[in-house]
Protein backbone atom coordinates (compact mmCIF):
# COMPACT_ATOMS: atom_id res chain seq x y z
CA UNK A 1 0.00 0.00 0.00
CA UNK A 2 1.27 3.43 -0.91
CA UNK A 3 1.31 6.23 1.63
CA UNK A 4 -1.43 8.69 2.49
CA UNK A 5 0.84 11.37 1.07
CA UNK A 6 0.02 10.09 -2.46
CA UNK A 7 -3.69 10.74 -2.01
CA UNK A 8 -5.89 13.67 -2.92
CA UNK A 9 -8.93 14.60 -0.87
CA UNK A 10 -12.37 16.15 -1.27
CA UNK A 11 -14.13 18.38 1.24
CA UNK A 12 -16.73 15.58 1.51
CA UNK A 13 -14.08 13.40 3.20
CA UNK A 14 -13.32 11.08 0.28
CA UNK A 15 -9.85 10.28 -0.97
CA UNK A 16 -8.63 9.30 -4.43
CA UNK A 17 -5.40 7.69 -5.58
CA UNK A 18 -4.82 8.29 -9.30
CA UNK A 19 -2.54 5.77 -10.96
CA UNK A 20 -2.44 6.24 -14.73
CA UNK A 21 -5.89 5.46 -16.14
CA UNK A 22 -7.14 3.95 -12.88
CA UNK A 23 -8.26 5.83 -9.77
CA UNK A 24 -9.08 4.22 -6.43
CA UNK A 25 -11.60 5.96 -4.17
CA UNK A 26 -12.39 5.60 -0.48
CA UNK A 27 -13.42 7.55 2.62
CA UNK A 28 -10.92 9.16 4.97
CA UNK A 29 -9.83 8.02 8.40
CA UNK A 30 -11.53 11.11 9.84
CA UNK A 31 -14.80 10.14 8.10
CA UNK A 32 -14.78 6.53 9.30
CA UNK A 33 -14.06 7.71 12.82
CA UNK A 34 -16.90 10.25 12.77
CA UNK A 35 -19.34 7.71 11.30
CA UNK A 36 -18.55 4.99 13.81
CA UNK A 37 -18.88 1.27 13.14
CA UNK A 38 -19.83 0.84 9.48
CA UNK A 39 -22.42 -1.85 8.80
CA UNK A 40 -23.29 -1.48 5.11
CA UNK A 41 -21.93 0.15 1.95
CA UNK A 42 -23.98 0.66 -1.21
CA UNK A 43 -21.89 1.33 -4.31
CA UNK A 44 -22.66 2.12 -7.98
CA UNK A 45 -22.68 -0.63 -10.61
CA UNK A 46 -19.59 -1.46 -12.65
CA UNK A 47 -19.91 0.40 -15.95
CA UNK A 48 -21.79 3.34 -14.46
CA UNK A 49 -20.61 6.83 -15.38
CA UNK A 50 -20.22 9.13 -12.39
CA UNK A 51 -19.72 12.89 -12.31
CA UNK A 52 -17.38 14.75 -9.96
CA UNK A 53 -18.89 15.40 -6.49
CA UNK A 54 -22.11 13.55 -7.43
CA UNK A 55 -23.85 11.26 -4.97
CA UNK A 56 -22.77 7.73 -5.91
CA UNK A 57 -24.04 5.62 -3.03
CA UNK A 58 -24.58 5.41 0.70
CA UNK A 59 -22.60 4.30 3.69
CA UNK A 60 -24.42 3.15 6.78
CA UNK A 61 -23.01 3.10 10.30
CA UNK A 62 -24.66 2.20 13.59
CA UNK A 63 -25.38 5.92 14.00
CA UNK A 64 -26.55 7.08 10.60
CA UNK A 65 -26.83 6.65 6.86
CA UNK A 66 -24.65 9.07 4.88
CA UNK A 67 -24.27 9.83 1.19
CA UNK A 68 -21.10 8.91 -0.68
CA UNK A 69 -19.68 11.32 -3.24
CA UNK A 70 -17.04 10.84 -5.89
CA UNK A 71 -14.05 13.18 -5.87
CA UNK A 72 -13.59 12.88 -9.66
CA UNK A 73 -15.60 11.86 -12.75
CA UNK A 74 -15.22 8.64 -14.66
CA UNK A 75 -16.49 5.17 -15.40
CA UNK A 76 -16.74 2.59 -12.63
CA UNK A 77 -14.46 -0.36 -13.41
CA UNK A 78 -14.51 -2.23 -10.11
CA UNK A 79 -16.23 -2.09 -6.72
CA UNK A 80 -14.85 -3.57 -3.53
CA UNK A 81 -17.02 -6.68 -3.22
CA UNK A 82 -15.29 -7.75 -0.02
CA UNK A 83 -17.11 -4.96 1.84
CA UNK A 84 -20.39 -6.82 1.45
CA UNK A 85 -19.34 -9.43 4.00
CA UNK A 86 -16.80 -7.27 5.83
CA UNK A 87 -17.88 -3.59 5.92
CA UNK A 88 -15.65 -3.18 9.00
CA UNK A 89 -12.66 -3.05 6.64
CA UNK A 90 -13.58 0.61 6.04
CA UNK A 91 -13.08 1.25 9.78
CA UNK A 92 -9.92 -0.83 10.05
CA UNK A 93 -8.11 0.26 6.91
CA UNK A 94 -9.82 3.23 5.26
CA UNK A 95 -6.82 3.79 2.97
CA UNK A 96 -6.16 0.10 2.30
CA UNK A 97 -8.49 -2.91 2.30
CA UNK A 98 -11.42 -0.55 2.97
CA UNK A 99 -11.26 1.11 -0.47
CA UNK A 100 -14.67 1.53 -2.11
CA UNK A 101 -14.37 1.60 -5.89
CA UNK A 102 -12.03 2.00 -8.84
CA UNK A 103 -12.87 4.20 -11.80
CA UNK A 104 -11.36 5.17 -15.12
CA UNK A 105 -11.01 8.96 -14.82
CA UNK A 106 -12.59 10.92 -17.66
CA UNK A 107 -11.39 14.41 -16.78
CA UNK A 108 -7.83 14.29 -15.39
CA UNK A 109 -7.83 18.07 -14.83
CA UNK A 110 -10.40 17.68 -12.07
CA UNK A 111 -7.76 16.64 -9.58
CA UNK A 112 -6.70 20.30 -9.47
CA UNK A 113 -9.88 21.09 -7.52
CA UNK A 114 -8.99 18.51 -4.84
CA UNK A 115 -7.05 19.01 -1.61
CA UNK A 116 -3.52 17.94 -0.74
CA UNK A 117 -3.01 15.79 2.39
CA UNK A 118 -1.88 18.90 4.31
CA UNK A 119 -4.88 20.96 3.14
CA UNK A 120 -7.29 18.19 4.05
CA UNK A 121 -5.67 17.69 7.44
CA UNK A 122 -6.45 21.32 8.20
CA UNK A 123 -10.17 20.83 7.42
CA UNK A 124 -10.43 17.58 9.34
CA UNK A 125 -8.85 18.96 12.52
CA UNK A 126 -10.88 22.16 12.56
CA UNK B 1 -31.42 -11.59 23.10
CA UNK B 2 -34.36 -13.27 24.81
CA UNK B 3 -32.13 -16.16 25.77
CA UNK B 4 -29.73 -13.67 27.32
CA UNK B 5 -32.68 -12.39 29.35
CA UNK B 6 -33.25 -15.91 30.71
CA UNK B 7 -36.43 -16.51 28.77
CA UNK B 8 -36.35 -19.39 26.27
CA UNK B 9 -37.94 -18.74 22.88
CA UNK B 10 -41.49 -19.97 22.83
CA UNK B 11 -40.59 -22.01 19.75
CA UNK B 12 -38.01 -23.89 21.74
CA UNK B 13 -40.10 -24.65 24.79
CA UNK B 14 -43.04 -27.00 25.35
CA UNK B 15 -43.48 -30.67 24.53
CA UNK B 16 -45.51 -32.49 21.95
CA UNK B 17 -49.10 -32.88 23.04
CA UNK B 18 -48.87 -30.35 25.83
CA UNK B 19 -51.17 -27.72 24.37
CA UNK B 20 -54.53 -27.49 26.10
CA UNK B 21 -57.35 -28.58 23.86
CA UNK B 22 -60.63 -27.45 25.30
CA UNK B 23 -62.54 -27.92 22.12
CA UNK B 24 -63.13 -30.89 19.92
CA UNK B 25 -61.56 -30.45 16.52
CA UNK B 26 -64.17 -29.49 13.94
CA UNK B 27 -64.54 -30.73 10.39
CA UNK B 28 -61.23 -31.41 8.62
CA UNK B 29 -59.71 -28.45 6.81
CA UNK B 30 -59.89 -30.35 3.50
CA UNK B 31 -63.62 -29.64 3.58
CA UNK B 32 -62.97 -25.90 3.31
CA UNK B 33 -59.65 -25.36 1.56
CA UNK B 34 -58.15 -26.51 -1.75
CA UNK B 35 -55.21 -28.94 -1.39
CA UNK B 36 -52.68 -26.44 -2.82
CA UNK B 37 -52.93 -24.24 0.28
CA UNK B 38 -52.67 -27.11 2.78
CA UNK B 39 -49.44 -28.47 4.19
CA UNK B 40 -48.62 -31.53 6.23
CA UNK B 41 -46.24 -29.98 8.66
CA UNK B 42 -46.55 -26.79 10.67
CA UNK B 43 -43.78 -26.42 13.23
CA UNK B 44 -45.71 -24.45 15.84
CA UNK B 45 -44.71 -24.76 19.49
CA UNK B 46 -46.78 -27.09 21.63
CA UNK B 47 -47.11 -25.26 24.96
CA UNK B 48 -49.60 -25.46 27.78
CA UNK B 49 -51.64 -22.36 28.48
CA UNK B 50 -49.78 -21.86 31.75
CA UNK B 51 -46.44 -21.97 29.90
CA UNK B 52 -47.68 -19.34 27.47
CA UNK B 53 -48.96 -17.06 30.25
CA UNK B 54 -45.65 -17.35 32.08
CA UNK B 55 -43.65 -16.75 28.91
CA UNK B 56 -45.32 -13.48 28.05
CA UNK B 57 -45.53 -12.30 31.66
CA UNK B 58 -41.79 -12.88 32.04
CA UNK B 59 -41.14 -10.92 28.86
CA UNK B 60 -43.30 -8.08 30.12
CA UNK B 61 -41.20 -7.95 33.29
CA UNK B 62 -38.03 -7.61 31.26
CA UNK B 63 -39.09 -4.68 29.16
CA UNK B 64 -39.39 -0.97 29.88
CA UNK B 65 -42.29 1.33 29.15
CA UNK B 66 -43.93 4.57 30.15
CA UNK B 67 -45.91 2.61 32.78
CA UNK B 68 -42.61 1.80 34.53
CA UNK B 69 -40.72 5.05 34.31
CA UNK B 70 -39.68 8.27 32.59
CA UNK B 71 -39.29 7.86 28.82
CA UNK B 72 -37.77 11.08 27.37
CA UNK B 73 -37.34 9.78 23.81
CA UNK B 74 -37.00 12.93 21.67
CA UNK B 75 -39.53 13.47 18.85
CA UNK B 76 -41.47 10.39 20.01
CA UNK B 77 -43.72 12.14 22.56
CA UNK B 78 -43.90 9.27 25.04
CA UNK B 79 -46.56 10.83 27.22
CA UNK B 80 -48.95 9.12 29.57
CA UNK B 81 -52.01 7.84 27.75
CA UNK B 82 -55.01 8.05 30.08
CA UNK B 83 -56.66 4.65 30.57
CA UNK B 84 -60.12 6.13 30.10
CA UNK B 85 -59.42 6.44 26.37
CA UNK B 86 -58.71 2.72 26.15
CA UNK B 87 -61.86 2.04 28.12
CA UNK B 88 -63.88 4.02 25.57
CA UNK B 89 -62.20 2.40 22.57
CA UNK B 90 -62.77 -1.13 23.87
CA UNK B 91 -66.48 -0.65 24.53
CA UNK B 92 -68.43 -3.43 22.82
CA UNK B 93 -70.28 -0.91 20.64
CA UNK B 94 -66.97 -0.01 18.98
CA UNK B 95 -64.83 -3.10 19.45
CA UNK B 96 -67.39 -5.62 18.17
CA UNK B 97 -68.48 -3.62 15.16
CA UNK B 98 -67.80 -5.53 11.95
CA UNK B 99 -65.97 -3.47 9.32
CA UNK B 100 -68.57 -4.45 6.72
CA UNK B 101 -71.48 -3.13 8.79
CA UNK B 102 -73.63 -1.01 6.46
CA UNK B 103 -73.32 2.73 6.98
CA UNK B 104 -76.88 3.11 8.29
CA UNK B 105 -76.15 0.62 11.10
CA UNK B 106 -72.78 2.19 12.00
CA UNK B 107 -73.77 5.82 12.40
CA UNK B 108 -72.11 6.15 15.81
CA UNK B 109 -68.77 4.89 14.53
CA UNK B 110 -68.97 7.09 11.46
CA UNK B 111 -69.85 10.06 13.67
CA UNK B 112 -66.62 9.43 15.63
CA UNK B 113 -64.58 9.50 12.43
CA UNK B 114 -66.40 12.58 11.16
CA UNK B 115 -66.03 14.49 14.44
CA UNK B 116 -62.34 13.61 14.65
CA UNK B 117 -61.77 14.72 11.06
CA UNK B 118 -63.55 18.06 11.65
CA UNK B 119 -61.71 18.64 14.96
CA UNK B 120 -58.28 17.96 13.43
CA UNK B 121 -59.04 20.29 10.52
CA UNK B 122 -59.94 23.06 12.95
CA UNK B 123 -57.04 22.44 15.35
CA UNK B 124 -54.41 22.48 12.58
CA UNK B 125 -55.99 24.88 10.10
CA UNK B 126 -56.38 22.41 7.24
CA UNK B 127 -59.45 22.06 4.99
CA UNK B 128 -59.87 18.30 5.41
CA UNK B 129 -58.18 15.18 6.79
CA UNK B 130 -58.20 11.54 5.75
CA UNK B 131 -57.98 9.10 8.66
CA UNK B 132 -56.73 6.37 6.33
CA UNK B 133 -52.93 6.18 6.89
CA UNK B 134 -51.65 3.91 9.66
CA UNK B 135 -48.89 6.16 11.00
CA UNK B 136 -46.73 9.20 10.28
CA UNK B 137 -44.41 7.84 7.59
CA UNK B 138 -47.38 6.18 5.90
CA UNK B 139 -49.10 9.57 5.76
CA UNK B 140 -45.91 11.17 4.40
CA UNK B 141 -45.97 8.66 1.57
CA UNK B 142 -49.65 9.47 0.96
CA UNK B 143 -48.93 13.19 0.91
CA UNK B 144 -46.11 12.79 -1.60
CA UNK B 145 -48.31 10.57 -3.79
CA UNK B 146 -50.88 13.39 -3.69
CA UNK B 147 -48.21 15.91 -4.71
CA UNK B 148 -47.07 13.66 -7.53
CA UNK B 149 -50.59 13.26 -8.87
CA UNK B 150 -51.34 16.98 -8.45
CA UNK B 151 -48.30 18.01 -10.49
CA UNK B 152 -48.90 15.33 -13.10
CA UNK B 153 -52.44 16.60 -13.68
CA UNK B 154 -51.09 20.12 -14.00
CA UNK B 155 -48.52 18.94 -16.55
CA UNK B 156 -45.65 19.88 -14.24
CA UNK B 157 -43.84 16.56 -14.34
CA UNK B 158 -40.48 18.37 -14.19
CA UNK B 159 -41.03 18.77 -10.46
CA UNK B 160 -39.04 15.80 -9.19
CA UNK B 161 -37.21 17.27 -6.19
CA UNK B 162 -38.11 17.29 -2.53
CA UNK B 163 -36.29 19.72 -0.23
CA UNK B 164 -35.59 18.36 3.26
CA UNK B 165 -33.76 20.52 5.85
CA UNK B 166 -31.26 18.76 8.12
CA UNK B 167 -33.54 19.58 11.04
CA UNK B 168 -36.42 17.55 9.59
CA UNK B 169 -37.34 14.02 10.62
CA UNK B 170 -35.39 11.05 9.29
CA UNK B 171 -38.46 9.51 7.68
CA UNK B 172 -38.91 12.49 5.31
CA UNK B 173 -36.08 11.71 2.87
CA UNK B 174 -37.00 8.02 2.99
CA UNK B 175 -40.63 8.75 2.05
CA UNK B 176 -39.52 11.08 -0.74
CA UNK B 177 -37.09 8.52 -2.15
CA UNK B 178 -39.72 5.78 -1.95
CA UNK B 179 -42.05 7.99 -3.98
CA UNK B 180 -39.44 8.46 -6.70
CA UNK B 181 -38.40 12.01 -5.82
CA UNK B 182 -34.83 13.24 -5.65
CA UNK B 183 -33.98 14.49 -2.16
CA UNK B 184 -32.25 17.85 -1.73
CA UNK B 185 -30.83 18.11 1.77
CA UNK B 186 -30.64 21.65 3.11
CA UNK B 187 -28.34 22.69 5.95
CA UNK B 188 -29.83 24.88 8.68
CA UNK B 189 -28.22 28.18 9.67
CA UNK B 190 -26.17 28.98 12.78
CA UNK B 191 -29.37 29.50 14.77
CA UNK B 192 -30.59 26.00 13.86
CA UNK B 193 -33.24 27.37 11.51
CA UNK B 194 -33.97 27.15 7.80
CA UNK B 195 -33.00 30.43 6.18
CA UNK B 196 -35.38 32.11 3.74
CA UNK B 197 -32.49 33.12 1.48
CA UNK B 198 -31.31 29.51 1.18
CA UNK B 199 -34.83 28.32 0.38
CA UNK B 200 -35.15 31.01 -2.30
CA UNK B 201 -31.89 29.79 -3.84
CA UNK B 202 -32.87 26.12 -3.85
CA UNK B 203 -36.60 26.30 -4.68
CA UNK B 204 -37.33 26.42 -8.40
CA UNK B 205 -39.40 25.00 -11.21
CA UNK B 206 -38.13 21.50 -10.38
CA UNK B 207 -39.27 21.68 -6.73
CA UNK B 208 -42.21 19.43 -5.91
CA UNK B 209 -42.37 19.60 -2.12
CA UNK B 210 -40.45 21.03 0.82
CA UNK B 211 -40.89 18.92 3.98
CA UNK B 212 -40.45 20.61 7.34
CA UNK B 213 -41.37 20.16 10.95
CA UNK B 214 -42.06 23.13 13.18
CA UNK B 215 -40.75 23.27 15.84
CA UNK B 216 -37.87 21.43 14.20
CA UNK B 217 -35.92 18.48 15.60
CA UNK B 218 -33.70 20.85 17.59
CA UNK B 219 -36.89 21.90 19.40
CA UNK B 220 -36.69 25.38 17.85
CA UNK B 221 -39.59 27.27 16.31
CA UNK B 222 -39.04 28.46 12.73
CA UNK B 223 -40.11 32.10 13.14
CA UNK B 224 -39.72 32.79 9.43
CA UNK B 225 -42.00 29.96 8.43
CA UNK B 226 -44.51 32.23 6.65
CA UNK B 227 -41.75 33.67 4.43
CA UNK B 228 -40.38 30.16 3.80
CA UNK B 229 -43.73 28.71 2.72
CA UNK B 230 -44.33 31.81 0.57
CA UNK B 231 -40.96 31.35 -1.16
CA UNK B 232 -41.70 27.69 -1.96
CA UNK B 233 -45.19 28.60 -3.20
CA UNK B 234 -43.72 31.32 -5.36
CA UNK B 235 -41.53 28.67 -6.99
CA UNK B 236 -44.68 26.60 -7.54
CA UNK B 237 -43.89 23.92 -4.94
CA UNK B 238 -45.97 22.51 -2.10
CA UNK B 239 -45.17 22.61 1.65
CA UNK B 240 -45.48 19.52 3.84
CA UNK B 241 -45.73 19.72 7.63
CA UNK B 242 -44.44 16.71 9.55
CA UNK B 243 -46.73 16.63 12.58
CA UNK B 244 -44.41 14.62 14.80
CA UNK B 245 -43.67 17.75 16.87
CA UNK B 246 -47.25 19.00 17.06
CA UNK B 247 -47.27 18.55 20.84
CA UNK B 248 -45.57 21.95 21.06
CA UNK B 249 -48.07 24.08 19.17
CA UNK B 250 -51.63 22.98 19.87
CA UNK B 251 -53.89 26.00 20.20
CA UNK B 252 -50.97 28.39 19.61
CA UNK B 253 -50.08 27.95 15.95
CA UNK B 254 -51.61 26.09 13.02
CA UNK B 255 -49.72 24.57 10.08
CA UNK B 256 -52.51 25.76 7.78
CA UNK B 257 -51.92 29.37 8.88
CA UNK B 258 -48.16 28.94 8.43
CA UNK B 259 -48.84 28.17 4.75
CA UNK B 260 -48.54 24.37 4.68
CA UNK B 261 -50.51 22.53 1.98
CA UNK B 262 -50.17 19.03 3.41
CA UNK B 263 -49.54 17.61 6.88
CA UNK B 264 -49.89 14.58 9.05
CA UNK B 265 -50.58 14.20 12.72
CA UNK B 266 -49.40 11.22 14.76
CA UNK B 267 -52.40 10.83 17.03
CA UNK B 268 -50.45 8.08 18.82
CA UNK B 269 -47.83 10.65 19.82
CA UNK B 270 -49.65 13.93 20.22
CA UNK B 271 -52.89 12.53 21.56
CA UNK B 272 -53.22 9.30 23.40
CA UNK B 273 -52.30 5.97 21.86
CA UNK B 274 -49.75 3.66 23.55
CA UNK B 275 -46.91 3.32 21.03
CA UNK B 276 -43.82 2.08 22.87
CA UNK B 277 -43.98 -1.25 21.10
CA UNK B 278 -43.89 0.30 17.66
CA UNK B 279 -47.55 0.22 16.76
CA UNK B 280 -50.24 0.13 15.77
CA UNK B 281 -50.18 3.84 14.98
CA UNK B 282 -52.58 6.32 13.45
CA UNK B 283 -51.50 9.05 11.05
CA UNK B 284 -54.32 11.27 9.76
CA UNK B 285 -53.31 13.15 6.59
CA UNK B 286 -54.53 16.74 6.24
CA UNK B 287 -54.66 18.97 3.16
CA UNK B 288 -55.48 22.54 2.15
CA UNK B 289 -58.48 23.28 -0.12
CA UNK B 290 -56.72 22.75 -3.47
CA UNK B 291 -55.75 19.16 -2.58
CA UNK B 292 -58.95 17.86 -0.93
CA UNK B 293 -59.98 15.82 -4.00
CA UNK B 294 -56.75 13.82 -3.84
CA UNK B 295 -57.14 12.52 -0.25
CA UNK B 296 -57.01 8.73 0.24
CA UNK B 297 -60.41 7.04 0.33
CA UNK B 298 -62.73 6.44 1.99
CA UNK B 299 -63.62 9.82 3.47
CA UNK B 300 -66.49 10.17 5.93
CA UNK B 301 -69.05 12.72 4.74
CA UNK B 302 -72.26 13.97 6.25
CA UNK B 303 -75.43 14.72 4.31
CA UNK B 304 -79.15 14.98 5.08
CA UNK B 305 -79.42 11.20 5.59
CA UNK B 306 -76.53 11.07 8.08
CA UNK B 307 -72.90 9.94 7.89
CA UNK B 308 -71.52 7.75 5.14
CA UNK B 309 -68.19 6.52 3.78
CA UNK B 310 -67.49 8.05 0.39
CA UNK B 311 -65.43 5.96 -2.04
CA UNK B 312 -66.27 7.59 -5.36
CA UNK B 313 -63.67 10.33 -5.56
CA UNK B 314 -62.16 10.19 -9.05
CA UNK B 315 -59.06 12.26 -8.26
CA UNK B 316 -58.21 10.37 -5.03
CA UNK B 317 -54.92 8.52 -4.76
CA UNK B 318 -57.08 5.61 -3.52
CA UNK B 319 -57.08 3.71 -0.22
CA UNK B 320 -53.72 3.34 1.54
CA UNK B 321 -54.73 0.33 3.60
CA UNK B 322 -57.52 -2.11 4.28
CA UNK B 323 -60.84 -1.07 5.80
CA UNK B 324 -61.15 2.07 7.91
CA UNK B 325 -57.61 2.29 9.26
CA UNK B 326 -56.98 1.65 12.96
CA UNK B 327 -60.47 2.66 13.92
CA UNK B 328 -60.06 2.08 17.66
CA UNK B 329 -57.32 4.73 17.56
CA UNK B 330 -59.74 7.23 16.08
CA UNK B 331 -61.99 6.55 19.08
CA UNK B 332 -59.09 7.05 21.50
CA UNK B 333 -58.03 10.24 19.74
CA UNK B 334 -61.51 11.73 19.82
CA UNK B 335 -61.95 10.77 23.48
CA UNK B 336 -58.69 12.59 24.24
CA UNK B 337 -59.81 15.66 22.25
CA UNK B 338 -63.15 15.80 24.02
CA UNK B 339 -61.63 15.29 27.48
CA UNK B 340 -59.15 18.14 26.96
CA UNK B 341 -61.16 20.59 24.90
CA UNK B 342 -59.48 23.52 23.19
CA UNK B 343 -58.28 25.08 26.44
CA UNK B 344 -56.96 21.73 27.66
CA UNK B 345 -54.98 21.16 24.48
CA UNK B 346 -53.39 24.60 24.83
CA UNK B 347 -52.41 23.64 28.35
CA UNK B 348 -50.90 20.37 27.05
CA UNK B 349 -48.57 22.29 24.74
CA UNK B 350 -47.85 24.92 27.38
CA UNK B 351 -46.73 22.33 29.93
CA UNK B 352 -44.80 20.29 27.35
CA UNK B 353 -42.78 23.42 26.53
CA UNK B 354 -42.38 24.38 30.18
CA UNK B 355 -41.13 20.90 31.13
CA UNK B 356 -38.64 20.85 28.25
CA UNK B 357 -37.21 24.23 29.21
CA UNK B 358 -37.01 23.35 32.90
CA UNK B 359 -35.01 20.25 32.03
CA UNK B 360 -32.92 22.07 29.41
CA UNK B 361 -31.72 24.67 31.92
CA UNK B 362 -30.95 22.01 34.56
CA UNK B 363 -28.97 19.89 32.08
CA UNK B 364 -27.12 22.90 30.61
CA UNK B 365 -25.33 23.16 33.96
CA UNK B 366 -23.27 20.03 33.21
CA UNK B 367 -23.66 19.18 29.47
CA UNK B 368 -23.35 21.33 26.36
CA UNK B 369 -26.64 22.52 24.87
CA UNK B 370 -25.60 23.71 21.41
CA UNK B 371 -28.64 25.96 20.93
CA UNK B 372 -28.97 27.75 24.26
CA UNK B 373 -32.28 29.53 23.84
CA UNK B 374 -35.87 28.94 24.89
CA UNK B 375 -36.92 25.72 23.20
CA UNK B 376 -40.32 24.21 22.47
CA UNK B 377 -41.30 20.68 23.50
CA UNK B 378 -37.79 19.17 23.21
CA UNK B 379 -34.13 20.13 23.09
CA UNK B 380 -30.72 18.69 22.23
CA UNK B 381 -27.69 18.27 24.46
CA UNK B 382 -24.29 17.11 23.24
CA UNK B 383 -21.59 14.89 24.73
CA UNK B 384 -18.98 16.16 22.27
CA UNK B 385 -16.77 17.75 24.92
CA UNK B 386 -17.06 14.68 27.12
CA UNK B 387 -16.04 12.49 24.19
CA UNK B 388 -13.03 14.68 23.45
CA UNK B 389 -11.83 14.98 27.04
CA UNK B 390 -12.86 11.65 28.57
CA UNK B 391 -13.72 9.37 25.66
CA UNK B 392 -17.31 8.99 26.87
CA UNK B 393 -19.89 9.15 24.09
CA UNK B 394 -23.57 10.01 23.99
CA UNK B 395 -24.15 6.27 23.63
CA UNK B 396 -22.44 5.58 26.97
CA UNK B 397 -24.51 8.23 28.77
CA UNK B 398 -27.68 6.79 27.25
CA UNK B 399 -26.77 3.27 28.34
CA UNK B 400 -25.86 4.42 31.84
CA UNK B 401 -29.27 6.09 32.24
CA UNK B 402 -30.85 2.63 31.99
CA UNK B 403 -29.03 1.72 35.22
CA UNK B 404 -30.83 4.58 36.93
CA UNK B 405 -34.25 3.37 35.79
CA UNK B 406 -34.77 5.83 32.94
CA UNK B 407 -35.34 5.19 29.26
CA UNK B 408 -32.51 6.66 27.18
CA UNK B 409 -33.23 9.79 25.13
CA UNK B 410 -33.08 9.67 21.33
CA UNK B 411 -29.39 9.73 20.38
CA UNK B 412 -27.34 10.73 17.35
CA UNK B 413 -30.29 12.62 15.89
CA UNK B 414 -30.54 15.22 14.43
CA UNK B 415 -27.31 14.39 12.61
CA UNK B 416 -26.09 17.99 12.57
CA UNK B 417 -25.31 17.88 16.31
CA UNK B 418 -22.37 15.55 17.07
CA UNK B 419 -22.82 13.17 20.05
CA UNK B 420 -26.39 14.31 20.29
CA UNK B 421 -28.96 13.49 22.95
CA UNK B 422 -32.47 14.63 22.05
CA UNK B 423 -34.70 14.97 25.08
CA UNK B 424 -38.49 15.33 25.15
CA UNK B 425 -40.02 15.09 28.62
CA UNK B 426 -43.71 15.72 27.63
CA UNK B 427 -46.33 17.47 29.72
CA UNK B 428 -47.38 14.46 31.78
CA UNK B 429 -44.25 14.30 33.95
CA UNK B 430 -43.98 15.91 37.39
CA UNK B 431 -41.27 18.29 38.58
CA UNK B 432 -39.98 15.53 40.89
CA UNK B 433 -39.51 13.16 37.95
CA UNK B 434 -37.65 15.82 35.94
CA UNK B 435 -35.45 16.63 38.95
CA UNK B 436 -34.66 12.94 39.45
CA UNK B 437 -33.71 12.51 35.81
CA UNK B 438 -31.48 15.61 35.75
CA UNK B 439 -29.83 14.45 38.98
CA UNK B 440 -29.15 10.98 37.53
CA UNK B 441 -27.67 12.42 34.33
CA UNK B 442 -25.48 14.79 36.34
CA UNK B 443 -24.21 11.88 38.43
CA UNK B 444 -23.40 9.94 35.26
CA UNK B 445 -21.52 12.90 33.72
CA UNK B 446 -19.62 13.27 36.97
CA UNK B 447 -18.67 9.58 36.86
CA UNK B 448 -17.66 9.98 33.22
CA UNK B 449 -15.14 12.65 34.21
CA UNK B 450 -13.70 10.68 37.15
CA UNK B 451 -13.79 7.10 35.89
CA UNK B 452 -14.81 6.97 32.24
CA UNK B 453 -13.98 3.28 31.79
CA UNK B 454 -16.68 2.31 34.29
CA UNK B 455 -19.36 3.61 31.92
CA UNK B 456 -18.29 1.57 28.92
CA UNK B 457 -20.01 -1.55 30.29
CA UNK B 458 -23.25 0.19 31.29
CA UNK B 459 -25.94 -0.85 31.80
CA UNK B 460 -24.93 -3.35 34.45
CA UNK B 461 -28.11 -3.64 36.54
CA UNK B 462 -30.54 -4.46 33.72
CA UNK B 463 -31.53 -8.00 32.78
CA UNK B 464 -29.49 -7.68 29.58
CA UNK B 465 -26.26 -5.67 29.77
CA UNK B 466 -24.45 -3.83 26.98
CA UNK B 467 -25.52 -5.31 23.67
CA UNK B 468 -23.29 -5.48 20.60
CA UNK B 469 -25.18 -3.09 18.33
CA UNK B 470 -22.61 -3.29 15.56
CA UNK B 471 -22.86 -7.06 15.36
CA UNK B 472 -26.64 -6.85 15.48
CA UNK B 473 -26.58 -4.52 12.46
CA UNK B 474 -23.93 -6.46 10.55
CA UNK B 475 -25.28 -9.94 11.19
CA UNK B 476 -28.97 -9.54 11.91
CA UNK B 477 -30.64 -12.74 13.14
CA UNK B 478 -34.29 -11.90 12.88
CA UNK B 479 -36.09 -15.14 12.22
CA UNK B 480 -36.39 -18.36 14.14
CA UNK B 481 -35.82 -21.43 12.03
CA UNK B 482 -36.60 -24.98 13.09
Describe the structure.
With 126 residues, chain A is α+β, with helices and mostly antiparallel strands. Chain A has one domain (4-125): OB fold (Dihydrolipoamide Acetyltransferase, E2P) (Beta Barrel). Helix content of chain A is 16%, strand content 35%. The N and C termini of chain A lie far apart (28 Å). In chain A, 38% of the residues are buried. Chain B has helices at 49-61, 83-89, 92-95, 107-124, 136-153, 171-178, 196-202, 225-234, 255-258, 267-271, 327-364, 384-390, 394-403, 431-450, 469-474; strands spanning 128-130, 161-165, 182-186, 207-212, 238-242, 262-264, 285-287, 299-303, 306-310, 379-382, 410-411, 420-423. Chain B has 15 helices and twelve strands. The chains are: A alpha+beta (126), B alpha/beta (482). The interface between A and B is small, with 10 and 8 residues.
> What name goes with the CATH superfamily of chain A?
RNA polymerase II/Efflux pump adaptor protein, barrel-sandwich hybrid domain
What does the radius of gyration of chain A come to?
13 Å
DSSP summary, beta strand count of chain A: 9
CATH class of chain A: Mainly Beta
The geometry of chain B reads as: globular
**Which superfamily, in CATH terms, is the homologous superfamily of the largest domain in chain B?**
Type I PLP-dependent aspartate aminotransferase-like (Major domain)
The secondary structure category of chain A is alpha+beta
Mean pLDDT of chain B: 93
Q: Count of helices of chain B?
A: 15
> Count of helical segments of chain A?
3
CATH architecture of the largest domain in chain B: 3-Layer(aba) Sandwich
> How confident is the prediction overall: mean pLDDT of chain A?
92
The largest β sheet of chain A comes out as:
6 strands, antiparallel
Question: For this structure, what is the CATH class of the largest domain in chain B?
Answer: Alpha Beta
- Cα radius of gyration of chain B in angstroms: 25 Å
Largest sheet descriptor of chain B = 7 strands, mixed
Tell me the number of structural domains of chain A.
Answer: 1
Range of strand content of chain B: 5-15%
- Catalogue the unreliable spans of chain A: none
Amino acid sequence: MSSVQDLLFSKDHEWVRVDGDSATIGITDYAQNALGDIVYVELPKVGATIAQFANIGVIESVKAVSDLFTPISGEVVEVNGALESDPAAVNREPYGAGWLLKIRPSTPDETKSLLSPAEYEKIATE
Amino acid sequence: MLEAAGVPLIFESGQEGRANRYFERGKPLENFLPPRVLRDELPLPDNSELDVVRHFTQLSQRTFGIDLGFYPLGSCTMKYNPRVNDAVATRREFADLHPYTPDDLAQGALAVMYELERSLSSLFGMTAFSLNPSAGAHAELGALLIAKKYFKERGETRRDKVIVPDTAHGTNPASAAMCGFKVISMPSNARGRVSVEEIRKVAGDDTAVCMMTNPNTLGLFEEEIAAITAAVHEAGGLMYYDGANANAIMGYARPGDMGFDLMHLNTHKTFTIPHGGGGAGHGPLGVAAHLVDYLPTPVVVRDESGFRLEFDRPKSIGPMRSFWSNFAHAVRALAYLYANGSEGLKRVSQLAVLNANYLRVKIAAFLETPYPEVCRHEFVASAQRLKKENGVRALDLAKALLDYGYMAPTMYFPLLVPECLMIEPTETESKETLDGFAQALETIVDRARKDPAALFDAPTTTVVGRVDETRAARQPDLRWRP
